[in-house]
From TrEMBL:
Any GO molecular function: pyridoxal phosphate binding
Name of the protein in question: UDP-4-amino-4,6-dideoxy-N-acetyl-beta-L-altrosami ne transaminase
Any GO BP annotation: polysaccharide biosynthetic process
Pfam families: DegT_DnrJ_EryC1
Keywords: Pyridoxal phosphate
Lineage: Bacteria, Bacillati, Actinomycetota, Actinomycetes, Micromonosporales
Keyword NAD included in the entry's annotation: no
Superkingdom to which the source organism belongs: Bacteria
Active-site residues, as the UniProt record annotates them: 180
Modified residues (N6-(pyridoxal phosphate)lysine): 180
Protein family: Belongs to the DegT/DnrJ/EryC1 family.
Length: 374
């Protein structure tokens, strides 16, 4: 089965991990600090805090933003469930706003309409690696007195009007799952350009521990002393995985260049296929193209999905609208809430997209798809 996404691991990554395993620090050591510094460069100077997954990054970002019961988070349903569930787990109410019909990205006008006096965060998703409309969304968030969050699980290395993803929103979250644009096996990060938020994120991912003497509330203790002022979790990404990330980050530009080549080939090879919509690219952005999401028209998506997988082509669907999940329907969310997103979901099919995908493999994907839609 040809997968829809796959990691690319070289001998350099293996050697870097082995070096850490032979050293003194398996976690909380120098590889963590180096990876965070390298990430900060990629994110345009934003302060970066590594965590154990993209989901942990979202949970940590919302905690750093201080959201809780009574607060609202406005976001898109066209995303992995963690964008919403981590906010809900902190007690916030998730308010879903519809998406743009062509890109599947959060619609700024819908987000504006969804905001209330209780909105604390507007959370956009760089769906498929294409940056959202951050100029418009910044206006929406600022007007609501809310923080702007970028769920950039798909878009590390992308740019928006020349600015690196990570340097635009108040909080940005990355995912380093194996199918993403780079990997640490499991892992993620929170980036922030807003003073104090990265510090809060770092404390939350480290169980809430306070170790700076000038912050202590209990005085006259020994050098071993540490305190917890706010609850946190152990979301620390260990050195052994950060070592993998350091090398992957060096290869990121090459990964993204190959993804752009694959996108260009898909566009050329599929441009004349009836019943198929290809994903757009907005002016002023350089997407990271984690996914290549095509739209199968005429109610044929399920049939095409089944027949392509039967042919050994590992296509995927991204994503089930978040509020369709029973955990949200049990909270009272109804189908029909975001009709544009629901139509997008009914048509969407992600074609194989990863740096080691060969031209021959891509040609096979195209041939099978053309035969089914011809």
């Amino acid at each position: 089965m040809l997968p829809y996404g796959r990691q690319s691991i070289s001998d350099d990554e293996i050697a870097a991990v082995a070096e850490v395993l032979r050293g003194d620090w398996l976690t909380t050591g120098p590889a963590v600090r180096q990876f965070e510094a390298d990430l900060a460069t990629t994110a345009g100077g934003a302060e970066c805090v590594t965590v154990t997954s993209g989901t942990a990054a979202l949970h940590t970002a919302y905690a750093a933003a201080g959201i809780g019961p009574g607060d609202e988070v406005v976001t898109s349903p066209m995303t992995f469930v963690a964008t919403a569930s981590t906010a809900a787990m902190l007690g916030a109410t998730v308010v879903f706003a519809d998406v743009e019909a062509d890109t599947g990205l959060l619609d700024p006008q819908a987000a504006k309409a969804a905001c209330t006096e209780r909105t604390r965060v507007v959370a956009a998703i760089d769906y498929a690696g294409h940056p959202a409309d951050y100029d418009a969304l910044r206006t929406v968030a600022d007007s609501a007195g809310a923080l702007l969050l970028d769920d950039a699980a798909h878009s590390i290395g992308a740019t928006y009007h020349g600015k690196p993803i990570g340097s635009i929103a108040d909080l940005t979250t990355f995912s380093f799952f194996p199918t993403k644009n780079m990997t640490t096996a499991e892992g993620g990060a929170v980036a922030s350009v807003r003073p104090g938020l990265a510090e809060r994120a770092a404390r939350f991912r480290n169980i809430g521990l306070v170790r700076e003497p000038h912050r202590f509330r209990i005085a006259d203790q020994g050098r071993w002393h540490q305190e917890v002022h706010e609850f946190g979790l152990n979301y620390r990404l260990p050195d052994v995985l950060c070592a993998l990330g350091i090398v992957q980050l060096r290869r990121l530009a090459g990964f993204l260049a190959r993804r752009r080549e694959l996108v260009a080939r898909y566009r050329t090879l599929l441009s004349d296929v009836d019943g198929l919509l290809l994903p757009p690219q907005r002016p002023g952005v350089e997407p990271a193209w984690h996914l290549f999401p095509v739209r199968i028209l005429g109610g044929r998506r399920r049939d095409v999905y089944e027949r392509m997988r039967a042919a050994g082509i590992g296509v995927q669907v991204n994503y089930v609208p978040v509020y369709w999940h029973p955990v949200f329907t049990d909270l009272g969310y109804k189908r029909g809430l975001c009709p544009v997103a629901e139509e997008y979901y009914e048509q969407e099919l992600s074609l194989p997209m990863f740096p080691d995908l060969t031209d021959d493999d891509q040609d096979r994907v195209v041939d099978v798809l053309r035969s089914l839609l011809g």
